[in-house]
Amino acid sequence: MASTYRETYQNWQNDPEGFWAEAAKEIDWYSPAVKVFNPNGGVYGTWFDGATCNTCYNCIDRHVEGGRATQKALIYDSPITGAQQSYSYSELKQEVVALAAVLQDRGVGKGDRVIIYMPMVPEAAFAMLACARIGAIHSVVFGGFAAAELATRIDDATPKVIISSSCGIEPGRIIAYKPLLDEAIELASSKPQATIILQREQLTCELIGGRDFDYRSETELAKSQGREVACVAVAATDPLYVLYTSGTTGQPKGVIRDNGGHMVALKWSMSAIYGVAPGEVWWAASDVGWVVGHSYIVYGPLLHGATSILFEGKPVGTPDAGTFWRVISEHNVVAQFTAPTAFRAIKKEDPDGKLIKNYDLSSFRTLFLAGERADPDTIQWAERSLNVPVIDHWWQTESGWPMATNPVGLGALPIKYGSPCVPVPGYKIEVLSDEGEPMANNELGNILVKMPLPPGCLPTLWNADQRFREAYLEEFQGYYKTADAGYIDDDGYLFIMARTDDIINVAGHRLSTGGMEEVVAAHPDIAECAVLGIADKLKGQLPAGFFILNSGVERDVAEIEKEVIALVREKIGPVAAFKIAIPVKRLPKTRSGKILRGTMQKIADGIDYKIPATIDDPAILDEITEVLKARGICD
Ligand code: COA
Ligand code: AMP
Q: With a 6 A CB cut-off, is 342 part of the ligand 1 pocket?
């Protein structure tokens, strides 16, 4: 089909409010917007001002009432435990209503926060939707974060209740969540009134009387009592959730998502971007702890009346590199979304794609990749092996939905390898120099979005309007700073090349090297350190820490290395994948004392570099090169 992308983009540019007002007709509102966009609301304006709505109603109830009651809403497929379970829209409603009743019994109401710290089980999705139903604000914390990270989020979000689980399951090991939760509550100065704990058969836990409540017995009781919980009307501009993401310090940023704009944008994206029809089966192979999980495991597909797969497993090893193909063929998945790293892992195990031939993938139409740069090799391997278009698209936690994509639903454009294609309607993307001057085509600069951001993007940070302004809006007046660098080519295709801050992307997981430096520097024997992301064939990037010992320290340095690695795992969590800690005598710096992390990274990655003009002592670069060579990190 000929692409209607350019026409659609033009329609949006001609009349942004009219464009989104039209898209908003796909959502059921209790009362309509007084203003589609109010430029005077919030920090930079608010979408669907004056409207009232409920996200859970739009995800569940209206489908139950509208003929999808028996259609599968959620399929839980867990190769790591061997479990499989599906929930129709009416069964999903029953689960969500029961949990909403339990939350109400614990005093949770509109505007209260609830932290959800859970593995990839359907109850995590029920918990998000139950909060949405009663107007509570959820904050999901990824299971791979350690107690200290959870504690930071508890202190920032001050939740009334935490919903968690006895354990998560990783290949070869069971992760006891309850001790992590207890430690986090101990560490936090804000204490939740109650926790609701899902006991899993792989490892149960002790419940603390008066504080911990059993998820299953409480919800079963609510069901047996026939409890009804109506959807609570909230303002379109009220927060639906807060999702913490790495910032440039150890203090994560609480990205807020509102209710109204979020629904409009996600619903529109399911057909226009992903080309999925209501009733079809869609699979985002991510985790509910990340934005992809929020938008495209839970809210997007359910708003659309599609069937969503919630997968508890890994692309390899659960049990093999054919798992993805098994899930696609068994559930007739039409489109999948995952991170390129998952495909790199599969390609490594099964380079000739032999396992693919064991499955009937005739239902499968499109593969979407995002979360990190998709290297052309991986894309081409996936194209060849699966014989479907492979679409790289670009977005971030802050946007909540794609900023650049090849819009399959509007008719795909030609693919250019290495590019996530073109700006999505709603986003006017420009590339400016550090001084704010427009860059010519094909020239690298700061990638910015002209304000205002479209519906669905963050209106601000939780309790931190000023931090929001400083982090995103102040450096380039009139623009939102994505903190990505790249360029736009002569055909208007965007290329994302690097971050402009200290964020790195490890296996599609966003991490702050600044946060890791804070942990490493806290080691009593360490005087100074630098953490940077170095290239890795599988995970895209891996953190590597360089540290200088305090003078006079005579302990075995190998021991200290181990302690540093253990410290990052303990304070940030296994997800940081911090396994390289290297003692050095000196760190290269500018004359004003700034560590030359970028140059060190180039050395580690074997990329040609220029000796920075401002360097204090160029000899240190040779020392770093020698150390990296000795470790086999560079040649
Ligand atoms: N709870 C507890 N620990 C977790 C966890 C969780 N939810 N998720 C990951 N971890 C642990 C892992 O077990 C691993 O621990 P280890 O150091 O003891 O081995 C560590 O955190 C690092 O995890 P990860 O970087 O994911 O590496 P991996 O080797 O386990 O898996 C991939 C590598 C590529 C298979 C996996 O990262 C993957 O499937 N990624 C793509 C999909 C995705 O999730 N994308 C996110 C955004 S779209
Ligand atoms: P997150 O907030 O975890 O989704 O991470 C967002 C960041 O991941 C972006 O700012 C980019 O740096 C990177 N990213 C996401 N998608 C892509 C992509 N398709 N190509 C290159 N980088 C990407």
A: yes
